[in-house]
Design brief:
It is a single chain. The chain has 191 residues and is α+β, with helices and mostly antiparallel strands. It is built from eight helices and four strands, in the order E-H-E-H-E-E-H-H-H-H-H-H. A four-stranded mixed beta sheet has the order 2-1-3-4, covered by helices on one side. Strand 1, helix 1 and strand 2 form a beta-alpha-beta unit. Helix 1 packs parallel to helix 3. The longest helix is centred in the last third of the chain and has 27 residues. InterPro entries: Glutathione_S-Trfase, Glutathione_S-Trfase_N, GST_Omega/HSP26, Thioredoxin-like_sf.
Length: 191
């Protein structure tokens, strides 16, 4: 039986979504607490994650309100570590076969190193995508068509649909990039 489990998350963060997706996929029972990244609760850093980042999990101990995490519950942070933890407690997230499990971990590692940081630099920091192309070329040699099948399979899963709010994400990114688009449009017109 799974103990008390609370996920501290933020809908806008892809790292949070992958942690939530990992919990949804094996249908684990958990409490979801949305952390306002612009106005984090005062208690969050001291009681959940000293780095004040999401996602994080509080695990174990008696069930409490998410905004009152107990000291005796274990706090687990960093999304890739959370994925491993969920795989350990659910036994349904990764393949049982050690070779297949190693292949999945290789894929996770390759995407985490080659693509995820580059997507972040483009989406959040507004950098040009040229470095992303290099990362994608590296991955392309590894799993070309397999990745497309994986992504289509992922998007078709109920757990993905439940954890990915495409309208919300689109609104947030549109709001974040509207000033940049307006600035770029204005600079083109000034020549």
């Amino acid at each position: 039986m799974i103990e008390q489990l609370t996920l501290y998350t933020a809908k806008i963060r892809p790292y949070s979504q992958r942690a939530e997706l990992a919990l949804e996929e094996p249908r684990l029972s958990f409490t979801r607490f949305e952390v306002d990244l612009q106005n984090k609760p005062e208690w969050y850093a001291s009681k959940v994650n000293p780095a004040s980042k999401v996602p994080a999990i509080a695990y174990g101990g008696p069930k409490t309100a998410p905004d009152q995490p107990l000291l005796e519950s274990q706090k687990i942070t960093e999304s890739l570590i959370l994925l491993e933890f969920v795989a350990d407690i659910s036994a349904k997230l990764l393949p049982k076969d050690p070779v297949q499990r190693a292949r999945v971990r290789f894929f996770i590692d390759a995407v985490s190193i080659s693509v995820a940081p580059l997507l972040h630099s483009i989406a959040v920091l507004g950098e040009t995508p040229k470095n992303l192309y290099k990362g994608l070329e590296t991955l392309q040699s590894l799993f070309n068509n397999r990745y497309r099948r994986y992504l289509a399979d992922l998007k078709a899963r109920d757990s993905f649909k439940k954890t990915f709010d495409d309208n919300y994400i689109l609104e947030q990114y549109s709001a974040a990039f509207s000033p940049l688009r307006a600035q770029k449009k204005a600079s083109k017109g000034s020549f």
